[in-house]
Structure formats: structure tokens, C-alpha cells
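Students often ask why inverse folding is considered easier than folding. One informal answer: many sequences map to the same fold, so there is more than one right answer. In these notes we will look at a single instance of the problem. The structure comes first.
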């Protein structure tokens, strides 16, 4: 099993918490072969794997690895959206259906309390997320029912 060393990884600080970004080949190894980072395994490879299938197609998304609040000596994966103007933000990727035209796809919603486990100040992080520009339905340009800041093709 490969053990990646933190010192070799790209580090990002988001909401006061360290995230580590692996290159795509390393992510595949962590997900498929059970590699570890600094001796600790990843929590829920399957969940991270689902997110990774989407993340790898878009240059403005990254899969970040962090320790979370109750790390239990494991890494947790979180999707990070890189807003050109406003930096990196945590988002929850979720399936959405446009209530106006019926478009179906994946959107990034930053207003999910759970993804802020490990942040310095959840309330503050939530307020920061609310400053992001919402994106509308790519088909009919109407706003979504949820706060979407990223939308897939
Ligand atoms: Zn629509």
C-alpha cells in the first residue's frame, strides 16, 4: 500500500482548515487500492469515489482531503469549488431537477452544514459561502430551488 507524505502534497487552507490535494493518479490509487496519507486511511472510499467521477471532469473542482472534526485517524474527502473571484469553497455535489424546465444534472451546494465539520468557525464559513454568486439552470436560466454555486454540463 502506498503511503503519501503530507509534505509532498499541495496544501490549501479553506475556512481555517488544512486540505490536501492529490494529483489525479494518486487520487485513483487512494480510492481503488486503499492507499493512505501520512499513515491514515480514507473514510468511505465509495462516497469519495462517486464525487471523484464528477470532480475529475471539471478544472474548477478539486477533491480535498481533510481530517474533519472527529477524524478517528482517517481522512475525509470533501469537494472544493474554486471560484475565480472568491477562492476555494466546500460544496456538496447533489442531483437537482429544475422545477421550471425539468433539466436534470449535478449542482454544487455550499449550504450544507455537515461539510463544514473541521472548519474553524462553521457559522462564519456558512456566511462566507452565502457571498458566492448563485448559478442558474443551464437550460432555462431560472434560479434553482436550492443555493447552487456550481453546475455540471
Ligand atoms: Zn431549467
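Output (designed amino acids):
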Amino acid at each position: 500500500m502506498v503511503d503519501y507524505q503530507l509534505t509532498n502534497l499541495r496544501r490549501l487552507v479553506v475556512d481555517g482548515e488544512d486540505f490536501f490535494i492529490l494529483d489525479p493518479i494518486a487520487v485513483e490509487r487512494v480510492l481503488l487500492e486503499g492507499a493512505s496519507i501520512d499513515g491514515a486511511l480514507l473514510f468511505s472510499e465509495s462516497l469519495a469515489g462517486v464525487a471523484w467521477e464528477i470532480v475529475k471532469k471539471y478544472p474548477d473542482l478539486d477533491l480535498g482531503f481533510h481530517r474533519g472534526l472527529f477524524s478517528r485517524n482517517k481522512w475525509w474527502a470533501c469537494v472544493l469549488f474554486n471560484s475565480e473571484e472568491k477562492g476555494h469553497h466546500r460544496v456538496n455535489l447533489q442531483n437537482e431537477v429544475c422545477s421550471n424546465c425539468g433539466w436534470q444534472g449535478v449542482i454544487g451546494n455550499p449550504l450544507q452544514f455537515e461539510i463544514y465539520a473541521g472548519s474553524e468557525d462553521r457559522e462564519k464559513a456558512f456566511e462566507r459561502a452565502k457571498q458566492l454568486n448563485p448559478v442558474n439552470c443551464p437550460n432555462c436560466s431560472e434560479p434553482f430551488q436550492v443555493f447552487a454555486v456550481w453546475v455540471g454540463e
